[in-house]
Amino acid sequence: MTKAPFHAEHVGSFLRPERLKKARQQYTEGGLGAEELWDIENEEITALVEKQKEAGLPVVTDGEFRRAWFHLDFMQEVDGAEFIKLDHGLVFSDNTETKAEGVKVVNKLAFRDHPVVREYEFLHSLKGEHAARVTVPSPSMFIFRTVTEEEKNVYQSEAELFSDLVQVYKDTIQALYEAGCRHLQFDDTTWSLFLGAEKDKDLVLSGGLLEARGLNPEETLDMFVNTVNEAIADKPEDMRIYMHVCRGNYKSTYASSGSYDAVSEYMFSKLNVDALLLEFDDERSGGFEPLKYVNRSDLQVVLGLITSKFPELEDAGLIKSRLQEAEKYIPLEQLGLSPQCGFASTEEGNILTEEEQWAKVRHVVSLAEDVWK
Protein backbone atom coordinates (compact mmCIF):
# COMPACT_ATOMS: atom_id res chain seq x y z
CA MET A 1 0.00 0.00 0.00
CA THR A 2 2.87 2.41 0.64
CA LYS A 3 4.47 1.94 -2.78
CA ALA A 4 3.50 4.56 -5.36
CA PRO A 5 2.19 5.06 -7.95
CA PHE A 6 -1.32 5.05 -6.60
CA HIS A 7 -4.19 4.79 -9.03
CA ALA A 8 -6.69 6.37 -6.58
CA GLU A 9 -5.32 9.76 -5.57
CA HIS A 10 -6.34 13.08 -4.08
CA VAL A 11 -4.73 16.50 -4.04
CA GLY A 12 -4.51 17.00 -0.29
CA SER A 13 -6.89 19.55 1.20
CA PHE A 14 -10.26 18.76 2.77
CA LEU A 15 -13.18 20.84 4.02
CA ARG A 16 -12.53 22.21 7.51
CA PRO A 17 -14.98 20.96 10.18
CA GLU A 18 -16.97 23.68 11.96
CA ARG A 19 -15.22 22.97 15.26
CA LEU A 20 -11.87 23.65 13.64
CA LYS A 21 -13.10 26.83 11.96
CA LYS A 22 -14.37 28.16 15.29
CA ALA A 23 -11.12 27.29 17.07
CA ARG A 24 -9.02 29.04 14.46
CA GLN A 25 -11.25 32.11 14.69
CA GLN A 26 -10.91 32.11 18.47
CA TYR A 27 -7.14 31.88 18.10
CA THR A 28 -7.11 34.82 15.67
CA GLU A 29 -9.17 36.89 18.11
CA GLY A 30 -6.90 36.01 21.03
CA GLY A 31 -9.36 33.76 22.84
CA LEU A 32 -7.39 30.57 22.35
CA GLY A 33 -3.69 29.83 22.86
CA ALA A 34 -1.37 28.31 20.27
CA GLU A 35 -1.03 24.97 22.06
CA GLU A 36 -4.79 24.76 22.66
CA LEU A 37 -5.32 25.29 18.95
CA TRP A 38 -2.64 22.68 18.19
CA ASP A 39 -4.47 20.12 20.33
CA ILE A 40 -7.79 20.77 18.59
CA GLU A 41 -6.12 20.56 15.19
CA ASN A 42 -4.55 17.25 16.23
CA GLU A 43 -7.94 15.82 17.18
CA GLU A 44 -9.54 16.91 13.91
CA ILE A 45 -6.61 15.66 11.83
CA THR A 46 -6.73 12.30 13.63
CA ALA A 47 -10.42 11.95 12.69
CA LEU A 48 -9.67 13.07 9.12
CA VAL A 49 -6.93 10.49 8.63
CA GLU A 50 -9.29 7.73 9.78
CA LYS A 51 -11.91 8.92 7.28
CA GLN A 52 -9.36 8.84 4.47
CA LYS A 53 -8.42 5.29 5.38
CA GLU A 54 -12.08 4.25 5.62
CA ALA A 55 -12.73 5.76 2.17
CA GLY A 56 -10.04 3.47 0.72
CA LEU A 57 -7.37 6.05 -0.09
CA PRO A 58 -3.86 4.58 -0.09
CA VAL A 59 -2.23 7.90 0.88
CA VAL A 60 -3.31 10.26 3.66
CA THR A 61 -2.72 13.96 4.34
CA ASP A 62 -3.53 16.31 7.21
CA GLY A 63 -6.06 18.03 4.95
CA GLU A 64 -4.10 21.30 5.31
CA PHE A 65 -6.16 21.75 8.49
CA ARG A 66 -3.48 23.96 10.07
CA ARG A 67 -3.53 26.43 7.16
CA ALA A 68 -5.67 29.30 5.98
CA TRP A 69 -4.13 29.16 2.48
CA PHE A 70 -2.51 26.29 0.60
CA HIS A 71 0.59 28.42 0.05
CA LEU A 72 0.84 31.57 2.19
CA ASP A 73 1.06 29.73 5.53
CA PHE A 74 4.14 27.84 4.36
CA MET A 75 5.67 30.85 2.64
CA GLN A 76 5.36 33.23 5.57
CA GLU A 77 7.25 30.80 7.83
CA VAL A 78 10.29 30.79 5.55
CA ASP A 79 12.95 33.00 7.09
CA GLY A 80 13.05 36.30 5.22
CA ALA A 81 9.35 36.25 4.25
CA GLU A 82 6.60 38.15 6.05
CA PHE A 83 2.80 37.95 6.03
CA ILE A 84 1.04 41.18 5.02
CA LYS A 85 -2.44 42.59 4.48
CA LEU A 86 -3.23 43.93 1.01
CA ASP A 87 -5.66 46.49 -0.34
CA HIS A 88 -7.36 43.94 -2.61
CA GLY A 89 -7.62 40.18 -2.93
CA LEU A 90 -7.23 38.12 -6.09
CA VAL A 91 -10.16 38.11 -8.51
CA PHE A 92 -11.46 34.69 -9.55
CA SER A 93 -14.36 33.72 -11.81
CA ASP A 94 -17.81 35.19 -11.11
CA ASN A 95 -15.90 38.23 -9.74
CA THR A 96 -15.22 36.32 -6.55
CA GLU A 97 -12.45 38.05 -4.60
CA THR A 98 -10.19 36.30 -2.13
CA LYS A 99 -9.09 37.69 1.21
CA ALA A 100 -6.62 40.54 0.78
CA GLU A 101 -3.52 38.80 2.12
CA GLY A 102 -0.05 38.06 0.83
CA VAL A 103 3.62 37.59 1.61
CA LYS A 104 6.54 39.90 0.95
CA VAL A 105 10.28 39.33 1.09
CA VAL A 106 12.05 41.35 3.79
CA ASN A 107 15.40 39.51 3.96
CA LYS A 108 17.35 36.69 2.32
CA LEU A 109 15.24 33.54 2.28
CA ALA A 110 16.22 30.49 4.34
CA PHE A 111 14.61 27.37 5.84
CA ARG A 112 15.08 27.31 9.63
CA ASP A 113 12.86 25.70 12.28
CA HIS A 114 9.93 25.61 9.88
CA PRO A 115 6.68 24.35 11.50
CA VAL A 116 5.95 22.10 8.51
CA VAL A 117 8.34 19.53 10.02
CA ARG A 118 6.48 19.34 13.35
CA GLU A 119 3.20 19.20 11.44
CA TYR A 120 4.41 16.28 9.33
CA GLU A 121 5.72 14.42 12.37
CA PHE A 122 2.19 14.37 13.80
CA LEU A 123 0.72 13.11 10.51
CA HIS A 124 3.45 10.46 10.36
CA SER A 125 2.40 9.17 13.78
CA LEU A 126 -1.10 8.48 12.41
CA LYS A 127 -0.36 6.93 9.04
CA GLY A 128 -0.03 3.28 10.08
CA GLU A 129 0.41 1.10 6.98
CA HIS A 130 -0.65 3.92 4.69
CA ALA A 131 1.57 6.39 2.88
CA ALA A 132 1.54 9.95 4.24
CA ARG A 133 2.02 12.99 2.02
CA VAL A 134 2.71 16.59 2.92
CA THR A 135 1.86 19.46 0.56
CA VAL A 136 3.88 22.66 0.13
CA PRO A 137 3.67 25.45 -2.46
CA SER A 138 6.03 25.05 -5.39
CA PRO A 139 9.06 27.36 -5.47
CA SER A 140 7.52 29.30 -8.34
CA MET A 141 4.61 30.34 -6.11
CA PHE A 142 6.94 32.97 -4.68
CA ILE A 143 6.37 34.93 -7.91
CA PHE A 144 3.02 35.93 -6.43
CA ARG A 145 4.59 37.71 -3.50
CA THR A 146 3.89 41.43 -3.24
CA VAL A 147 6.66 43.28 -5.04
CA THR A 148 7.69 46.46 -3.25
CA GLU A 149 10.50 48.93 -3.72
CA GLU A 150 12.04 47.86 -0.43
CA GLU A 151 12.35 44.28 -1.69
CA LYS A 152 14.79 45.45 -4.34
CA ASN A 153 17.26 45.98 -1.53
CA VAL A 154 17.09 42.22 -0.91
CA TYR A 155 16.80 40.72 -4.40
CA GLN A 156 17.58 42.54 -7.62
CA SER A 157 15.83 40.00 -9.86
CA GLU A 158 13.53 37.00 -9.89
CA ALA A 159 16.51 34.83 -10.89
CA GLU A 160 18.43 35.90 -7.78
CA LEU A 161 15.43 35.12 -5.59
CA PHE A 162 14.98 31.70 -7.17
CA SER A 163 18.62 30.89 -6.56
CA ASP A 164 18.03 31.15 -2.80
CA LEU A 165 14.75 29.26 -3.14
CA VAL A 166 16.64 26.24 -4.43
CA GLN A 167 18.41 25.97 -1.09
CA VAL A 168 15.20 26.61 0.86
CA TYR A 169 13.58 23.65 -0.86
CA LYS A 170 16.63 21.41 -0.59
CA ASP A 171 16.55 22.04 3.16
CA THR A 172 12.77 21.46 3.23
CA ILE A 173 13.15 18.10 1.50
CA GLN A 174 15.96 16.98 3.79
CA ALA A 175 14.19 18.03 7.01
CA LEU A 176 10.97 16.28 6.01
CA TYR A 177 12.84 13.17 4.92
CA GLU A 178 14.56 12.96 8.30
CA ALA A 179 11.09 13.23 9.89
CA GLY A 180 10.00 10.15 7.90
CA CYS A 181 8.35 11.79 4.89
CA ARG A 182 8.60 9.82 1.64
CA HIS A 183 5.86 11.59 -0.33
CA LEU A 184 6.09 15.36 -0.90
CA GLN A 185 3.80 17.41 -3.13
CA PHE A 186 4.46 20.81 -4.72
CA ASP A 187 1.27 22.78 -5.43
CA ASP A 188 1.61 25.19 -8.33
CA THR A 189 -0.77 27.64 -9.98
CA THR A 190 1.95 29.55 -11.86
CA TRP A 191 1.87 27.27 -14.92
CA SER A 192 -1.52 28.84 -15.60
CA LEU A 193 0.32 32.04 -16.51
CA PHE A 194 1.28 30.41 -19.79
CA LEU A 195 -1.91 28.61 -20.81
CA GLY A 196 -3.15 31.23 -23.24
CA ALA A 197 -6.45 31.97 -21.52
CA GLU A 198 -8.76 34.66 -22.88
CA LYS A 199 -7.39 38.01 -21.76
CA ASP A 200 -10.85 39.61 -21.62
CA LYS A 201 -11.67 37.44 -18.61
CA ASP A 202 -9.10 39.53 -16.72
CA LEU A 203 -8.58 36.89 -14.08
CA VAL A 204 -5.57 36.88 -11.84
CA LEU A 205 -3.59 34.18 -13.62
CA SER A 206 -4.50 35.18 -17.17
CA GLY A 207 -4.46 38.96 -16.96
CA GLY A 208 -0.91 39.75 -17.97
CA LEU A 209 0.88 39.13 -14.67
CA LEU A 210 4.10 38.18 -16.45
CA GLU A 211 4.04 41.37 -18.47
CA ALA A 212 3.34 43.41 -15.32
CA ARG A 213 6.45 41.93 -13.71
CA GLY A 214 8.53 42.55 -16.81
CA LEU A 215 9.20 38.83 -17.24
CA ASN A 216 9.88 37.03 -20.50
CA PRO A 217 7.57 33.97 -20.75
CA GLU A 218 10.18 31.54 -22.14
CA GLU A 219 12.88 32.65 -19.71
CA THR A 220 10.41 32.39 -16.83
CA LEU A 221 9.37 28.87 -17.85
CA ASP A 222 13.01 27.86 -17.94
CA MET A 223 13.51 29.41 -14.50
CA PHE A 224 10.51 27.54 -13.07
CA VAL A 225 11.70 24.20 -14.46
CA ASN A 226 15.33 24.70 -13.46
CA THR A 227 14.43 25.81 -9.94
CA VAL A 228 12.31 22.72 -9.30
CA ASN A 229 14.82 20.38 -10.90
CA GLU A 230 17.73 21.85 -8.94
CA ALA A 231 15.72 21.79 -5.71
CA ILE A 232 14.95 18.07 -6.02
CA ALA A 233 18.22 16.99 -7.64
CA ASP A 234 19.63 15.58 -4.39
CA LYS A 235 16.44 14.07 -3.01
CA PRO A 236 16.81 10.59 -1.51
CA GLU A 237 16.03 7.78 -3.93
CA ASP A 238 13.11 6.49 -1.88
CA MET A 239 11.35 9.87 -1.72
CA ARG A 240 8.73 10.72 -4.33
CA ILE A 241 8.06 14.31 -5.39
CA TYR A 242 4.66 15.17 -6.85
CA MET A 243 3.54 18.37 -8.55
CA HIS A 244 -0.09 19.46 -8.69
CA VAL A 245 -0.77 21.94 -11.49
CA CYS A 246 -3.82 24.08 -10.74
CA ARG A 247 -5.89 26.77 -12.44
CA GLY A 248 -7.14 28.24 -9.18
CA ASN A 249 -9.60 26.91 -6.60
CA TYR A 250 -11.47 29.29 -4.29
CA LYS A 251 -15.05 28.79 -3.09
CA SER A 252 -15.76 26.63 -6.16
CA THR A 253 -14.48 29.32 -8.56
CA TYR A 254 -11.39 29.27 -10.77
CA ALA A 255 -8.67 31.71 -11.81
CA SER A 256 -7.68 30.74 -15.36
CA SER A 257 -8.44 28.58 -18.38
CA GLY A 258 -6.51 27.04 -21.24
CA SER A 259 -5.08 23.73 -22.40
CA TYR A 260 -1.62 22.44 -21.51
CA ASP A 261 -0.42 22.98 -25.11
CA ALA A 262 1.65 26.07 -24.33
CA VAL A 263 3.63 24.36 -21.56
CA SER A 264 3.50 20.71 -22.57
CA GLU A 265 7.11 20.35 -23.72
CA TYR A 266 8.38 21.95 -20.52
CA MET A 267 6.02 20.28 -18.08
CA PHE A 268 5.94 16.78 -19.55
CA SER A 269 9.47 16.51 -20.94
CA LYS A 270 11.70 18.63 -18.70
CA LEU A 271 10.37 18.50 -15.14
CA ASN A 272 12.07 15.78 -13.11
CA VAL A 273 9.25 15.19 -10.63
CA ASP A 274 7.97 11.66 -10.04
CA ALA A 275 4.28 12.41 -10.57
CA LEU A 276 2.03 15.11 -12.00
CA LEU A 277 -1.50 15.72 -10.74
CA LEU A 278 -3.35 17.55 -13.52
CA GLU A 279 -6.72 19.27 -13.87
CA PHE A 280 -8.89 17.68 -16.54
CA ASP A 281 -12.37 18.03 -15.07
CA ASP A 282 -13.95 20.32 -17.68
CA GLU A 283 -13.46 22.03 -21.03
CA ARG A 284 -11.17 24.66 -19.47
CA SER A 285 -8.39 22.09 -19.43
CA GLY A 286 -8.39 21.17 -23.11
CA GLY A 287 -7.74 17.67 -24.44
CA PHE A 288 -5.20 14.96 -23.67
CA GLU A 289 -3.05 15.57 -26.78
CA PRO A 290 -0.29 17.42 -24.86
CA LEU A 291 0.39 14.19 -22.97
CA LYS A 292 2.21 12.96 -26.09
CA TYR A 293 5.24 14.86 -24.74
CA VAL A 294 5.54 12.56 -21.74
CA ASN A 295 8.83 10.81 -22.51
CA ARG A 296 9.41 8.87 -19.28
CA SER A 297 7.97 5.51 -18.38
CA ASP A 298 8.50 6.27 -14.67
CA LEU A 299 6.42 9.47 -14.61
CA GLN A 300 3.01 8.95 -13.04
CA VAL A 301 0.29 11.16 -14.50
CA VAL A 302 -2.78 11.53 -12.31
CA LEU A 303 -5.81 12.80 -14.21
CA GLY A 304 -8.10 15.08 -12.21
CA LEU A 305 -11.28 14.00 -13.98
CA ILE A 306 -13.48 14.35 -10.89
CA THR A 307 -14.33 17.92 -9.89
CA SER A 308 -13.93 19.04 -6.29
CA LYS A 309 -15.94 22.20 -6.97
CA PHE A 310 -19.45 20.75 -7.22
CA PRO A 311 -21.25 17.88 -5.47
CA GLU A 312 -22.73 16.03 -8.44
CA LEU A 313 -21.03 12.68 -9.07
CA GLU A 314 -19.60 12.21 -12.54
CA ASP A 315 -20.96 9.46 -14.76
CA ALA A 316 -18.76 6.40 -14.26
CA GLY A 317 -18.94 5.39 -17.91
CA LEU A 318 -17.83 8.84 -19.04
CA ILE A 319 -14.83 8.80 -16.68
CA LYS A 320 -13.79 5.35 -17.92
CA SER A 321 -14.07 6.48 -21.54
CA ARG A 322 -11.89 9.52 -20.81
CA LEU A 323 -9.27 7.29 -19.23
CA GLN A 324 -9.34 5.15 -22.38
CA GLU A 325 -8.83 8.30 -24.44
CA ALA A 326 -5.82 9.32 -22.32
CA GLU A 327 -4.44 5.81 -22.75
CA LYS A 328 -3.79 6.66 -26.40
CA TYR A 329 -0.89 8.79 -25.14
CA ILE A 330 0.20 7.09 -21.89
CA PRO A 331 -0.08 3.45 -20.78
CA LEU A 332 -2.90 2.85 -18.32
CA GLU A 333 -0.51 1.62 -15.62
CA GLN A 334 1.19 5.03 -15.69
CA LEU A 335 -2.10 6.84 -15.07
CA GLY A 336 -4.06 7.59 -11.92
CA LEU A 337 -7.40 9.20 -11.06
CA SER A 338 -8.19 12.01 -8.62
CA PRO A 339 -10.29 15.12 -8.06
CA GLN A 340 -8.87 17.98 -10.12
CA CYS A 341 -7.94 19.92 -6.99
CA GLY A 342 -8.31 19.86 -3.23
CA PHE A 343 -11.67 20.48 -1.59
CA ALA A 344 -10.38 23.47 0.35
CA SER A 345 -7.33 25.20 -1.11
CA THR A 346 -8.21 27.90 1.40
CA GLU A 347 -9.94 27.50 4.75
CA GLU A 348 -13.22 28.75 3.26
CA GLY A 349 -13.52 25.58 1.20
CA ASN A 350 -15.53 24.75 -1.91
CA ILE A 351 -19.32 24.86 -1.95
CA LEU A 352 -20.32 21.34 -1.02
CA THR A 353 -20.92 19.45 2.22
CA GLU A 354 -18.49 17.14 3.97
CA GLU A 355 -20.63 14.13 3.07
CA GLU A 356 -20.67 15.21 -0.58
CA GLN A 357 -16.89 15.56 -0.36
CA TRP A 358 -16.50 11.99 0.91
CA ALA A 359 -18.89 10.72 -1.75
CA LYS A 360 -16.51 12.22 -4.32
CA VAL A 361 -13.53 10.52 -2.69
CA ARG A 362 -15.30 7.15 -2.57
CA HIS A 363 -16.26 7.65 -6.23
CA VAL A 364 -12.57 8.05 -7.15
CA VAL A 365 -11.60 4.93 -5.19
CA SER A 366 -14.43 2.85 -6.64
CA LEU A 367 -13.63 3.88 -10.22
CA ALA A 368 -9.92 3.21 -9.72
CA GLU A 369 -10.58 -0.22 -8.27
CA ASP A 370 -12.77 -1.05 -11.27
CA VAL A 371 -10.37 0.31 -13.92
CA TRP A 372 -7.12 -1.01 -12.44
CA LYS A 373 -8.43 -4.34 -11.12
From TrEMBL:
Q: Which UniProt keywords apply?
A: Methyltransferase, Transferase
Q: Write out the GO MF terms.
A: 5-methyltetrahydropteroyltriglutamate-homocysteine S-methyltransferase activity; zinc ion binding
Gene3D superfamilies per the record?
Answer: 3.20.20.210
Specify one Pfam family.
Meth_synt_2
Please give the start and end residues of each transmembrane region: none
Show where the Cobalamin-independent methionine synthase MetE C-terminal/archaeal domain sits. 10-368
Q: Where is the signal peptide?
A: none
* SUPFAM superfamilies hit by this protein: UROD/MetE-like (SSF51726)
Its GO biological process annotations read: methionine biosynthetic process; methylation
Tell me the domain of life: Bacteria
| Database matches in InterPro entries | Met_Synth_C/arc, UROD/MetE-like_sf
Query: What protein am I looking at?
Result: 5-methyltetrahydropteroyltriglutamate--homocysteine methyltransferase
